[in-house]
């Protein structure tokens, strides 16, 4: 997929998320929008190996959304790819397939998530299993929230992954610097984030979370990883990215969308999508 088409796809996914949350009358739109471009790079940029017609395909790569409150973002991607009917997005949180947090009964979802701090230990276990099974071409990708890095189990998982030299594991930290109550740095500072991951024995890098071309290039480079270390990517993102009045605004962490704001957001996203035509 071309750069232009990848960016157009990202705008489409944001529209799908908007419609799903409007229908559900609540959702985590800010943190979903901050990871859309990462998801597009992974799933449409030729990075993650998958088969939408066979979600349990033995040779698939694994993806875990540890910040499961942003589940609607991965749902929108999976529905678009054909893992399940797109119509399911209109029934978010109503007792059908899709709840607010992902679970392993949804096609394309590897593990229940949303209880923050659990995802990295699970991903590390998967990556270790592949090492033991000599599945050398299989990778595990995980997206964590930066606020999630307040959890001690994240750093236990980080230490475990480094000890076992899990170079088939890539942790992507959604570094939008906002949690429910405001700035991560005002509440319990995380910087210098990159130094923390390096101190735990990881190869750590920073990237613009909204430059899809750079994301695809970075993920593609992991095929040549010879360091024998797990990789942490600090993805510098914007909460609410794509809708100007949501961007960098902690109040859009969770909630509903009234008709006026929905119409304004839809108009802005459609306008950006048309620019990529």
Description:
By secondary structure, this protein is α/β, with parallel strands linked by helices. Helix content is 40%, strand content 12%. The protein has ten helices and seven strands. The strands form two sheets. A five-stranded parallel beta sheet has the order 1-2-3-7-6, with helices on one face. The protein has a two-stranded antiparallel ribbon with strand order 4-5. Helix 1 crosses helix 3 and helix 1 runs antiparallel to helix 10. The longest helix has 22 residues, at 3-24. The chain is globular, with a radius of gyration of 18 Å.
Stretches where pLDDT falls below 50 for ≥5 residues? none
Structural class, by secondary structure, is alpha/beta
Number of helices: 10
Q: What is the H/E string?
A: HHHEHHEHEEEHHEHEH
**Domains, number:** 1
Estimate percent helicity: 40-55%
Straight-line N-to-C gap: 14 Å
Could you please say which CATH topology applies here?
Rossmann fold
- What is the CATH H-level superfamily? Thiamin diphosphate (ThDP)-binding fold, Pyr/PP domains
Number of strands: 7
Q: What would the average pLDDT be, to the nearest integer?
A: 94
CATH class value: Alpha Beta
The major sheet is characterized as: 5 strands, parallel
Shape: globular
- Beta-strand fraction estimate: 5-15%
> Reading side by side through the largest sheet, how are the strands ordered?
1-2-3-7-6
Q: Taking Cα atoms only, what radius of gyration do you get, to the nearest Å?
A: 18 Å
In the CATH hierarchy, the architecture is 3-Layer(aba) Sandwich
